[in-house]
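seq as requested:
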Amino acid sequence: MDHNNNPTSPVVIPWSYEVFAPQPEVCAAWSAADISSRLSVIRGLRRRIAANAEDFVQALATRPGRKAVESVSAEILPLAEACRFLEREAARLLAPQRLGRRGRPVWLFGVEAEVRREPFGTVLIVGPSNYPLLLPGVQAVQALAAGNAVLVKPAPGCRAPMDLLAGWLEECGLPHGLFRVLDESAEAVGRAIEAGIDKLVLTGSAGTGRAVAERLARHLVPSTMELSGNDAVFVLPGADVEGVARALSFGLRLNGSATCIAPRRVFVPLELAAGFEKAVERHAASIPPAPVPAQTMRRLLALARDAVADGARPLSGLPEENGTGMAPLVLADARPDMALLREELFAPVLSLVPVRDMEEALAGAALSPYALGASVFGPVAEARALARRIDAGTVTINDLIVPTADPRLPFGGRHASGWGVTRGAEGLLEMTQVKAVCVRTGRQRPHFDPPRDGDEALMLAALRLLHGGPGTRAGAMRRLVQAVRGRLKS
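struct tokens:
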């Protein structure tokens, strides 16, 4: 379905700040509203999603190679769960935190303190093409729950689900203007930044993230960025080889393998390599070709040919450069220093890396600059121990991808895979800025007075008494008493 050619769709016009910026009084009223009223909108949205999910399925039908069941399981259902998470947890997470007396320095007697979470103002969300509903949708409802206004810039061809979401939010009580869908062009991001936003949340490639971050830096606008991945899979001795092969097949098949945490590099012990290779080859052979953009195909083929020339062994022929689809490409005997294993690729490709042990696997995995997700397969105790050592934002044990849809979990990468997190409690809090509020009670304000003789001795004695070791504290009380007496006499 070509959304822009649908006569029932809203007319798409180039975005301008004057047309789409929410009125300041609308933003102020929304951010000041009781959290329960904001969550009532999100509750209404969740129920609307449940009642009219087929509308979202239709809006997502333009996703190449996407089956309706994948739209429901991978986007629509997780979005509803994310709404319910906010209904249950947002009020508690966003409530002011009173600090109490415990841990308060003794010299701050009479001071009450609290930490408040307040909205940024206007949050620009730059959505991806692979999950055009779930990823910007969750980020948007979290930003709205926190009291922000939201602008969404969809990926090209992905406007339909965001338009539908915008309409449903207003029907559920969201004030007009608080959720706006921009045009799909890359220029819309630049125009919004220049017009004035308060935070940006981007899901995209590392190259896009780098370019946008440079532009944001000129305006000192903060950001959260979920960028590229090249996920590693670690196969431990004792792992179920057949089960791992099935998992990898799922990762190659899901959404045409256009998932940021799809498996790409598999580190397998030498003693398991031969049997593992056969199992992976057998399962991969049953996966139908997936659509791959021509530019991605050309880049993949260049990297794959270099890898083969350097000793990697394709388990099937390399894909045709001008083909309309691509069957999974599995390369055995790959090495972690090959460019193919160090680049971001949204295509069904898998590299099998035989290793002597997990120390070699960890060292090899670290050669890629991307650290979004990873998976470990094997006995749970050993897998947990290895997971603690893996440098990645998310580690899944004995599974792939699916557990990360838990709405309670934060999601984000490290290094070239971005910074900050979305989703979960931490993702909600990323949509807020912190304000510390301190209240001095009573009438005593000794620090207002000019320094007096003996103050230095008093402070040093207090420092040694409160923070010194046994030898330092021994005479600190005596010196503190002397200093207080001297100050009272002066």
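Confidence is low (pLDDT under 50) at residues 1-19.
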